[in-house]
Structures
1.
Amino acid sequence: MQNSTINKVSTKMSFSHRDFLGIEALNADEISFILDLAERYVVQNRRRPQTNSLLKGFVMINLFLENSTRTRLSFEMAAKRLGADVINMTTEGSSIKKGESFIDTLKTLNSLCPDIFVVRSKEEGAARASAEIMECPVINAGDGTNEHPTQAMLDALTLRRHFGRLDGLNIAICGDIIHGRVAHSNVLLLEKMGVHIKLVGPSELLPPNLENATTDMQEGLKDADAVMVLRIQEERLQKSLSFTSDEYFKSYGLTEEKLAWAKKDAVVLHPGPILRGAEIDATIADNPKRSLVTTQVEMGIAVRMACLDLLTRYKR
Ligand code: CP
């Protein structure tokens, strides 16, 4: 498909949101619409040249106040594939280190007049606060334990491409659900798309009183088409856990034995970073017949290109 074809088809679609702060604000049609557009970018990304000039002359600021490999680099890659210029900023080397507040940082960045603003922060609500100050579209690249909406979109795209649908799938999300913004955005998205979700983990890592949550890994993986494994978010723990890492791996670490409790051809997703031997065994994480991890990373670029495309349409 030619670049011009991608652009011609996709500009017929409409998208009424200025920002992309969370899955909560989207309905099923809007989610499908983003996934459909991302599919077109998967095609673009698999041929040469991979770039187009859709966002030529646009500047994206990528503010990452928490560490990141996949999200930061794939936003940068996505913007560059669309022809935009990218300014990366982290805490290190910035005036935040001298005590400048988040709000003053935002006001300064807004005065630079970027065309799109991507933000990751350990603070819940940082993306929403950014949207109140920034005059350009804001994308949430993960805010504390709240949401990581583009991760949920790329997970959905990975699952939809593998199974050909989302509706009716059984997905088990295992691990640290309570601190996991990936879990939160995925639950919101997958439920809107008709997926049956089971949340699996030790009680202290599960939200209380959820009908679809279980501490029993075998029960949680029963009939699962896919298992999404999440690491324990050590950096967000308020107090130490009541179990050792060995005990956790014994009960909840995904091994071939435990994966056999799911459907025969069940696949495995992990948002990364993967800690082999902590929440997943290397024999699963590195098995290309079972693991969709590298596909998730590839889909991350396409989904982020779709988001950048949609949110800048009002200017093009
Ligand atoms: N999935 C994810 O958010 O990974 P990074 O922290 O490396 O961006």
2.
Amino acid sequence: MVTRLVLVLGDQLSPDIAALREADKARDVVVMAEVSDEASYVPHHPKKIAFLFAAMRKFAASLESDGWTVRYTRLDDSDNSGSIPGELLRRAEEVGATEVLATEPGEWRLISALEDAPIPVHQFPDDRFLCSHAEFDVWAEGRKELRMEYFYREMRRKTGLLMDGDKPEGGKWNYDHDNRKPAPDAITFGGPMQFTPDDTVVEVLDLVDRRFDNNFGTLHPFWFATDREQARRALTHFIRKALPNFGDYQDAMLAENKFLYHAVISMYLNAGLLGWREVCDAAADAYASGDAPLNAVEGFIRQIIGWREYMRGIYFREGPEYTRRNTLEHSRALPGFYWDAETDMRCIAKAVEQTRDEAYAHHIQRLMVTGNFALLAGIDPAEVHEWYLAVYADAYEWVEAPNVIGMSQFADGGIVGSKPYVSGGNYINKMSDYCKGCRYEIGQKTGEKACPFNYLYWAFLHRHRDRFGKNPRMAQMYRTWMRMSEEKRAATLDSAEAFLDKMGSGGRV
Ligand code: FAD
Ligand code: DLZ
Ligand code: SF4
């Protein structure tokens, strides 16, 4: 029988991935490749590249010890063709294969590259997810609005997670009402489990140091888990030490605490080192044994079987053009401080610094600090999308784009969110300690010293009054705006214009 190639991509590091299930150890050859095309479609954070290359190398070794034949291409190999289709062709010629088994990639770009590859590639559905494309389409069909909450309830029923017969555990589907506490004075969790680099990681760090030195982001110290066994330990550590407080402080932010009670497992889930089922079961078990309260466990499970699956459903349903949407017609360039943290806005400087150091920021930092600012300032959503895709270790288009284009920038016109996630400085002040020590004054609404979020918020609403003025969920804010005196409104708009002009001309803001 003719040998077939089995493609395993960098974010498909699961031993039961569809293409491997379809293949035959005795007959087929696994292809894995570190290639410049994948490493440079955006300037990925060095920690993200190092994590993936190290995890790929360790996964290839585990496949080999499991009896698979693996042809692994390292980035520095002299005959590396630089692309996934190129490596498939090269390996096919080497082993005499005429066909490739693959698992559908998480990005339209690569799906079409495989469709157009110079060798036939059979793409199997990626069934590491709870909801298939077809199932999501059935759920979405005929609905006026695709609200995550209703999708999530279906997923709860489907999985039986936190269900009491056909009723939700505790009587309510969603305990977010209990979950929005501001930042506490002290955090009892010391952060995610950190791992000392082993020989494979050290070798990869050396490569990344040499090849990606100019990319935004700090490579050292590198502490991520890079194999399944380590990722499992990181998960257990979170479940034991942080999950009980996860719900309460999910939305809080602290300048000197990067992780609060967050799991910091998205990079492991998205690369395939962990699966949604084992993560949710571990959380549900903690509830069942009385080790974590319902509000924390429900909130955590909702992020995974709710938001994560819903975002993937939207990405694949909306098609390849989704990342180019720009409903609000925003066109301003992404300011330089997203790359160098050189801004007096302390909240943004802290979020960017932590992103640079860890390739990580938690949800509210992404949504209500860097995302909120970009939306208020009218930044081109395509540039915002590229930034998020580059700088976070967990970023792949299927999950990043609906979060950025949809949830954060409202560039999809309201598919993901029924209203834009915008706020003035008060929200940030309530949920964080950023404002103490900021050059800007949170209590001031206009003028040189005022918090820019304050006037940019009103200027945003004013700019988009035709679109949002009739949105019942925003009516109260428009009434407040219209109740302000004409002088106050003019001063607010003047402050916003002066700020944006200064920022646009490269001045420090
Ligand atoms: P926790 O807060 O501990 O949550 C647990 C898990 O739930 C996460 O590991 C993640 O798998 C899942 N989850 C939570 N929220 C979401 C969500 N909105 N969408 C999908 N999964 C979710 N997440 C990514 O995985 N990749 C991205 O590229 C990404 N980009 C984002 C961009 C923006 C603008 C925003 C607002 C959110 C983005 N998110 C993204 C979602 C979320 O911020 C991260 O999943 C989360 O911060 C990861 O950290 P954690 O593991 O500590 O999560
Ligand atoms: C993100 C990434 C990077 C940086 N490098 C590679 C690589 O060299 N080889 C590979 O197979 N995958 C890599 N990836 C992950 C892919 O970009 C990812 O599979 C697609 O974006 C689809 O999600
Ligand atoms: Fe951010 Fe405004 Fe607070 Fe400064 S005052 S940290 S700019 S919200």
